[in-house]
Specification:
single chain, 111 residues, mainly beta, 7-stranded mixed β-sheet, 4-stranded antiparallel β-sheet, 11 strands, globular
């Protein structure tokens, strides 16, 4: 059974930083492309970033240069380092593999 559990969300001020983590189990993590997606209030799901099994990363334009995705294939963990946060980054962030995603973690950016 695929399980994904996100953590690390919270309240941050504009310009601040947060680091999200996702604990994964139930599938072969090291061979899987992993993604972060987010859903802002009243909006649909938005893809944020993907890291392939070969550690190649891609980002949506709005976060490129501010967010960094990474993975630990020993611990089966996915991370998202978010710097220079903006109010428009406010959303529930989900870790995703294939069609599976976790329950999400809330990120709120506000002064």
């Amino acid at each position: 059974e695929v399980q994904l559990v996100e953590s690390g969300g919270g309240l941050a001020q504009p310009g601040g930083s947060l680091r999200l983590a996702c604990a994964a189990s139930g599938f072969i993590f090291r061979t899987s492309a992993m993604s972060w997606v987010r859903q802002a209030p009243g909006r649909g799901l938005e893809w944020v970033s993907t890291v392939t099994a070969y550690n190649s990363a891609t980002y949506v334009d709005s976060v490129r240069g501010r967010f960094t995705i990474s993975r630990d294939d020993v611990k089966n963990m996915l991370y998202l380092q978010m710097n220079n946060l903006k109010p428009e980054d406010t959303a529930v962030y989900y870790c995703r593999v294939g069609s599976f995603k976790g329950p999400g973690t809330q990120v709120t950016v506000s002064s």
